[in-house]
Amino acid sequence: MVESSSFAGHMANVILGLVLLLIAFCSIVPMWHVLMASISEGRDLFAKDGLVLLPVGGLNFEGYKLVFSDPSILRSYAVTVFYVVGTAGLGLLLNVLGGYVLSQNSRLKPFFVAMLMFSMMFSGGLIPSYIVNSRLGLVGSPLAIIIPGCTNAMAVIMCMNAFLQVPRETVEAARMDGAGHLPLMFQVMLPQGKGLIMVTVINSALMAWNAWFEASIYLPRQRKWWPLQLLIRDLTAKNQDFLNYANPDYNRYLIQYVVIVIATLPVLLTFPFFQKRLEENMVVGAVKG
Amino acid sequence: MGIKRNKPGISTKALKPDKLSWKEDFRKNGILYLLFLPVLVWEILFHYLPLPGILMAFQDFSISKGLFGSKWVGFEHFVELFTGSGFPLAFRNTVAMAILSLTIGFSASIIFALILTTFPHKRFRRLAQSASYLPNFVSAVVMCSLATEFLSEKGAITMFLSLFGADKQNWLANPDIPVFWLIYTFIGIWQGMGWGSIVYVASISNISGELHEAAAIDGANRFQRIWHVTLPGILPLIVMMWTMNVGIVLKLVGGNILLLYMPQTYDVADVLSTYTYRMSFGGSANYGLSTASGLFQSVLGLILLVTSNKLSKRAAGYSLF
Predict the structure, then answer these.
(1) ipTM for the predicted complex
(2) Could you tell me if B206 lies within 8 Å of chain A, comparing CB atoms?
């Protein structure tokens, strides 16, 4: 791109640079605030107003000690991992099965596609779904978090597209070698379409990690099956309860910050590895269109 | 969670429709159908079985009598919705926040992409862009508890605003119009601007440099180049993204409100989905009203989606289905 070297051009660059700096600052600072608050002195933090850019009242890891010695929080962490693996795994299985069948020619295929499309556009709503799930015995069961939301029509169709892009010769060659449907699906087509399919897996894992709503409806009283996000919601709402005790332990005020850190850091640390792939996927979808 | 930006383009035309009789088809593809069974069962259980439940919107539903024994009341629940006090407000708030999201919220990503691509220092640009992705990966619960903290009486944003003479207050409890609407819009911008800019940045860098050079030789300054070269270049993408956003706007408006609103702000913060939620669960639950309001929401969503898809097809040659 051609750059003007005039004074006005330089001034414009300085202003644009400052705007970018401000945007970067606003993107990072809320999480930084939480991270610094989580290692602050509880009593000083409680009295502090505004932004926390450095630990208040000196470094203090008592909050982390409290959290890592709390079996209910650790359990919730494990439960969340279980939900993520279960959702992403079951979702992948259904996506691959559905995507494979829809990538083949058959007389029922248009009917299946129409069925998926319709469900993407129109849903029965909250209460009708709740009643069906309750008839299925899912209310109060952790399976309610995994099975109903493990995939969606869009993901199945993305999978179908991934499989349709596999060269026909590859498929024919494998079929000549006598590969049945299952080996064809998992050993030939899945590796070929893995770019697109990985995106659906990452998306569903991220969504499961961040989910709270389903658990709040289907497991309202089953605290031991609460995912981390629902627990965080509860803990931040009650963040001043510790003051009700005769001799309040101000380190308990830190717990809400610590749980946010341990729930968010894993995602922020792993996403750079997937950043390229996710970015590419968005661009392929939009720019080609 | 937005829409996957992949082009589904279901083309049954590409494959040769070698018409088999049903019998032959089942002999040949029986195993395929068997493999589809899990997806079929899942689809039916969780998407099609709830559909008859919509009838509750027209019934005086009681669990003991069931869907086919309950008394029919016609459109009574809808009349109640539109003449009551809660639902019309929720509808107004939905429209207001949808408009804000489709104007200010939507343009934020484009403006950010324009700033990024006109800024000359590559490395700094990449850094700013990466930083802007972070909020997209923060969960709704965490984001809303951050908002609650930053907007509280002692929060950082409240402090900052008080420098300009605003009262120190819990902004999220402020029931004045348009405080909550703006807060909601800016939370959406904070979370989505960076990630949403990816497609625009990619599209802008696809515009040939020659066009820019020619414009520069003709004496066009930076803003004239943006106006006459860049924006026309990405206009089809903008049109497509905007119509797609119109189609899913009811999903965009609502997600986080359950985590942000409180009884003081119900009048300005309630939207269709939160109204349905409160009519479904909790003390004031009313199955008839909740299903009616949910049905209204579904039908409105369907109309928006189909209309926006038609528009997108006509204006940008891109369609979802």
Answers:
(1) 0.90
(2) yes
